[in-house]
Write a structure and sequence with these properties.
CATH class: Alpha Beta
Number of helices: 13
CATH superfamily: Aldolase class I
Radius of gyration: 19 Å
Distance between the termini: 19 Å
Number of domains: 1
CATH architecture: Alpha-Beta Barrel
Shape: globular
Oligomer: single chain
Order of helices and strands: HHHEEEHEEEHHEHEHEHEEHEHEHH
CATH topology: TIM Barrel
Helix content: 40-55%
Largest sheet: 8 strands, parallel, barrel
Strand order of the largest sheet: 3-4-7-8-9-10-12-13
Structural class: alpha/beta
């Protein structure tokens, strides 16, 4: 049956790949949103895609039914989490969400390289804003469907917000999603918002995380619910930059790291001149992200939970991330090239 699902996706993939990548993605997202709002269709998706066996994982105080999640960027406006939750994921990370709506960078801004299972994107956090995204998700404890899946919200700053004022944007999102999210992912590592990666510097990151943790602790006392906070880092940090970021993360008592975001490097993309700016994801990223996971694990003596992401397209790829020190993994590009059946394949293989 799993091979049948793979064959079905391989048949429709050429049609999708003839479309503009962003339009194809919007079509799939619309179908997932529509199917997620219909209980019989959700149950049918679960029947086909739910893993037959899974290894639960406890990370950051959260119980994950299996170690495979969906990375941020797939569903920026939190529209299709119901449909996505039927595909076998142990968790889904939504966003990146910014406080105010914004258009993002000019189109075209997504470019596929199928021969290498690679994608370059320069989206720039397009979205309808945090208020809209918040309305898409019921509060925890109000919906069995909502409570059946671990939902993370990836938050960022608006393009026009200076780095000196960025903490206000992140605090706004934290407050808005505190009763909606199961964890928060702090995105300071996208290469597609000018200057954002500067927030990974020690001074900026210390100030940002200290304010976020203080507000998180205040809300925890008020609402009697803890919310783990993870920091998403770039694969392009050198050793000193990584040490500085990890020091800030550990000193603030953040709950973990997501490693990694996309890369601006092109050395593993076997195209003479891709000619496109933006973050590279997919197979050319896998070794770089796994190396960063291993460094984080070693530098923190395994005390800091890691969610590993970057280039996973097979069970062997996922296993490499776990061996390097990750507790959980996330996919995105792999699902574009292999289809939703990849989730069940990974879960059952792990």
């Amino acid at each position: 049956m799993l091979n049948g699902r793979k064959m079905f996706y391989q048949r429709i993939r050429p049609l999708l790949f003839k479309m503009d990548p962003e339009r194809a993605h919007q079509l799939i997202l619309a179908l997932l949103r529509a199917s997620g709002n219909l209980a019989p269709v959700r149950e049918l998706l679960r029947f086909y895609f739910k893993p037959r066996s899974a290894r639960p994982v406890l990370v950051g105080g959260l119980y994950f039914p299996n170690p495979v999640g969906l990375a941020a960027g797939y569903d920026k406006d939190c529209l299709a989490w119901r449909g996505l939750s039927s595909l076998g994921f142990g968790h889904i990370e939504l966003g990146t969400v910014t406080p105010l709506p914004q258009a993002g960078n000019p189109r075209p801004r997504i470019f596929r390289y199928p021969d290498q299972e690679a994608i370059i994107n320069r989206m720039g956090f397009p979205g309808k804003g945090a208020d809209h995204a918040r309305r898409m998700i019921p509060p925890r404890g109000t919906s069995p469907l909502r409570d059946a899946i671990v939902l993370g919200i990836n938050i960022g700053k608006n393009k026009d917000t200076s780095n000196d004022q960025a903490v206000d944007d992140y605090l706004t999102c934290l407050r808005l999603f505190y009763d909606r999210a199961d964890y928060i992912s702090v995105n300071v590592s996208s290469p597609n918002t000018l200057g954002l990666r500067e927030l990974q510097g020690k001074a900026y990151l210390c100030a940002l995380l200290n304010d976020l943790i203080a507000e998180r602790d205040r809300l925890q006392l008020k609402l009697d619910h803890s919310l783990p906070l993870f920091v998403k880092l770039a694969p392009d940090l050198d050793d000193q930059e990584l040490d500085d970021a990890l020091e800030a993360i550990q000193d603030s008592c953040a709950d973990g790291v997501i490693a990694t975001n996309t890369t601006v490097q092109r050395k593993n993309l076997l195209v003479s001149d891709p000619g496109e700016e933006g973050g590279l994801s997919g197979q050319p990223l896998i070794d770089l992200s796994t190396s960063q996971i291993k460094k984080i694990h070693q530098r923190t003596s395994g005390r800091l939970p890691i969610i590993g992401v970057g280039g996973i397209g097979s069970a062997a790829d996922a296993r490499e991330k776990l061996v390097a020190g990750a507790s959980l993994v996330q996919i995105y590009s792999g699902m574009i090239f292999h289809g939703p059946g990849l989730v069940r394949k990974l879960v059952e293989s792990l």
